């Protein structure tokens, strides 16, 4: 992953998402949806999965509550400019507990987007890394199926929508690498395990190493052992 460590995901925004997920404020994790796209830089020695993917995979690993982990990876990538490796990629990860994670990475987008949505059965967190005035929004919204549905008509009748408030917590602005180094230093001084350690980096690497096996099989899901 070059100099891109799993700890790069430690920002106040990501810490907030982790806190909400692990305290149960979001409920059961249903989905993780991330978009990391921009124009370039097209790398010569690695594809877009290895260039941009480690960021979102490390964030996914960091925010998921204990017991919720990727079980399988399905990857599709294309090289429309002839770079020799994928310049646009889509990752779909099946999560234990029935949830799903989707990550879109792209070197060819004319606009830069850095958004992540972590959806739970109780609340939804939206993180926009390019919006310094409101990086994190917490929505008390959701969809519920009340009771069991044995037919399409009954299913539609049982669906209810919750439209509560949106809260945008005030967060300190901390550069990601600075926050990672400070956390690592604090862990050494306090003699504790850092929030993201070597095991976290290894989990990200295992997923990245699974991607080629999926792309070679036209995007078929491949189990990942974490």
Largest sheet: 9 strands, mixed
CATH architecture: 2-Layer Sandwich
Q: How many domains, in number, for the residues?
A: 1
> H/E series, N to C?
HEHEEEEEEHEHHE
Oligomer: single chain
CATH-assigned homologous superfamily: Dihydrodipicolinate Reductase, domain 2
- Uncertain spans: 1-9
Mean of the pLDDT scores?
Answer: 90
Strand fraction: 25-35%
Span of the ends, CA to CA: 17 Å
Approximate shape: globular
Radius of gyration: 19 Å
Query: Structural class, please?
Result: alpha+beta
DSSP helix fraction:
25-40%
CATH domain class: Alpha Beta
Strand order of the largest sheet: 8-7-6-5-1-4-3-2-9
**Number of E strands:** 9
Account of the protein in words:
- Helices cover 30% and strands 33% of the residues.
- The chain has 226 residues and is α+β, with helices and mostly antiparallel strands.
- The protein has a single domain (6-177, 195-215), classed as Dihydrodipicolinate Reductase, domain 2 (2-Layer Sandwich).
- Strands 8-7-6-5-1-4-3-2-9 form a 9-stranded mixed β-sheet.
- Strand 6 (124-128) and strand 7 (136-145) form a beta hairpin.
- Helix 2 crosses helix 5.
- The model is unreliable at 1-9 (pLDDT under 50).
């Amino acid at each position: 992953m070059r100099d891109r460590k799993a700890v790069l995901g430690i920002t106040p925004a990501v810490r907030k998402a982790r806190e909400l997920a692990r305290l149960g404020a979001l409920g059961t994790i249903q989905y993780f949806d991330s978009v990391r796209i921009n124009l370039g830089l097209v790398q010569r020695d690695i594809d877009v999965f290895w260039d941009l993917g480690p960021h979102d995979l490390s964030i996914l690993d960091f925010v998921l509550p204990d017991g919720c982990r990727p079980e399988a990876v399905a990857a599709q990538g294309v090289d429309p400019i002839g770079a020799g490796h994928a310049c646009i990629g889509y990752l779909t990860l099946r999560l234990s507990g029935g949830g799903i994670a989707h990550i879109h990475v792209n070197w060819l987008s004319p606009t830069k987007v850095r958004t992540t949505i972590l959806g739970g059965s109780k609340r939804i967190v939206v993180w926009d890394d390019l919006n310094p005035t409101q990086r994190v929004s917490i929505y008390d919204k959701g969809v519920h199926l009340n009771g069991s549905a044995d037919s399409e008509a009954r299913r539609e009748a049982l669906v209810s929508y919750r439209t509560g408030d949106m809260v945008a917590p005030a967060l300190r602005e901390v550069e990601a690498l600075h926050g990672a180094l400070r956390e690592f230093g604090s862990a050494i001084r306090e003699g504790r395990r850092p929030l993201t350690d070597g095991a976290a980096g290894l989990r990200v690497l295992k997923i990245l190493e699974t991607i080629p096996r999926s792309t070679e099989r036209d995007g078929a899901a491949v189990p990942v052992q974490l």
